[in-house]
Design brief:
Helix content is 39%, strand content 11%. By secondary structure, it is an alpha/beta fold. A five-stranded mixed β-sheet has the order 1-3-2-4-5. It starts with 16 loop residues before the first helix and ends in a 5-residue tail after the last helix.
């Protein structure tokens, strides 16, 4: 009876002539790729992609300022792209006002409507003394006029959800594709009573309701400042559905 032969094996990852022989005959697996090489390749790819997309957040005016720094044909491609994007705005600007909501209409006016466009709902306070809610009502009107391709709605919180605490108002709900994508519970998550159009535009960009290069955005602040708000703590979207199934 043949006795098994123990083949001496160095560390499987060692670069030795003996290991090369064993790998050739399939006795040990191929040496895994160096993680350093993988990381370097990923970094290089990300850097190349960032360079290729360096004009993605530029509007027409900003593109004009780069005439001396960029290839003329490359710039022209982005000019044509921006002009095409601008030409679609009048076609999709169909809302242009704040829509008051009634609970029986919520599913149609919000959930279903969000399958065609972004829908933002302001759940207002029932008290006239809520400064943040009054402020957001005014900002809502301005945003609705400015961004007619987004539907802005308003409804009293306690009429939407029975017993909804007034301390949680104003509440902002961002809908798209039939689901709640983002919630803001009071303006403390933005800038409190100092919240302005620019703060809400950041929210619109962050949620994807607007592109960062939209020419309608206030450009007194660099587009790079339209940073993600997702690190802020918000109430889970499912909470609203658990409170009342009829309106989600």
């Amino acid at each position: 009876m043949d006795m098994p032969v123990n083949v001496p094996i160095d560390s499987p990852n060692a670069d030795t002539e003996w290991n090369d022989i064993l790998r050739k005959h399939g006795i040990i697996p191929e040496k895994p790729a160096s993680p350093t090489a993988i990381i370097e390749e990923a970094v290089t790819k990300a850097r190349d992609q960032a360079h290729a997309n360096r004009l993605e957040d530029k509007d027409l005016d900003q593109l004009d300022e780069l005439e001396d720094d960029e290839d003329a044909d490359f710039l022209e491609q982005y000019r044509q792209k921006r002009m095409a994007e601008l030409s679609t705005i009048p076609q999709t600007s169909v809302f242009n006002q704040v829509y008051p909501l009634q609970k029986p209409d919520y599913s149609r006016e919000v959930t279903n409507a969000s399958k065609k466009a972004f829908v933002l709902v302001h759940l207002t306070s029932s008290l006239g003394t809520n400064t943040e809610s009054r402020l957001l009502t005014e900002l809502w009107r301005e945003l609705a006029r400015k961004f007619g391709d987004i539907k802005f709605c308003e409804m009293r919180g306690d009429m939407c959800i029975e017993g909804y605490p007034d301390k949680n108002t104003p509440t902002i709900l961002v809908y798209n594709d039939g689901d709640i994508k983002r919630q803001i519970i009071t303006l403390r998550e933005l800038a409190g009573t100092k919240t302005g159009i620019r703060d809400l535009e950041k929210l619109l960009v962050d949620t994807g309701a607007l592109k960062g290069n939209d020419s309608r955005l206030l450009h007194s602040v660099p587009l790079s400042d339209y940073t993600s708000l997702t690190s802020q703590k918000t109430k889970p979207a499912s909470t609203f559905a658990e409170d009342d199934d009829e309106w989600v």
